[in-house]
Amino acid sequence: RVISGNGYGWLQNHQIWLGAFCFLLEQTNMNPAEEIVKFWLQKNGYFVQSSIRVENGRGREIDILAIDNKGSEKRHIEVSVSIEMADFKGDARTKAEGYIKKFSHPSIVNQVTRIFGENAIYSKELIVGDVAIKKKDLLKEFIEECGKLNIKVKRISEILNEITPELKAHTHLNPIIRTIQICSKFDLSKK
Fold first, then answer.
1. Which of 14, 29, 94, 146 could covalently link to 151 via disulfide, CB atoms 3.0 to 4.6 Å apart?
2. How far apart are CA 139 and CA 108, in angstroms?
3. Strand duo 132-133 + 136-137: pairing
4. Alpha helices, DSSP H only, in 48-155?
5. Do 59 and 51 touch, CB atoms closer than 8 A?
6. pLDDT tens digits, one per residue of 155-171
């Protein structure tokens, strides 16, 4: 028998292991694209807060808020990356307008203000994979439409291209970054 007596002795002796196990279980809910963006921001000197639940937001969440180490540059970043983008209706303008609604929703703005401060100036940024309608690439048009709404757009591939060469220096603990590191080292496409 592993647990003897009232069982509390075993529990007390293994609290650290149980805590570590529970932590690892929680990590399975990580959003890989958000983890990559957070790593990139931190590598570039930003302090990052992510997966911020919005008060009175009815399930809304802010993906990432970042502030540089001087406190002068603030960024609200939403990450929308998937392996195969679901086709959406409308056009690039309609898709861009959907994102400005998220950035501008009163509960989102209130939460950002609580964190960044009253009258804070911050950029609104979107990290994307592919942007397509009926398999037609609309990234260029989408970036233009987002620009009209003061949303900066960056592709996740640009971020990956920037961070991947720098992953050769040492082993990373974040399982997502470690996976990128291993895939980069043992790139099967080159064999």
1. 146
2. 25
3. antiparallel
4. 92-104, 106-116, 139-148
5. no
6. 999 999 898 887 777 77
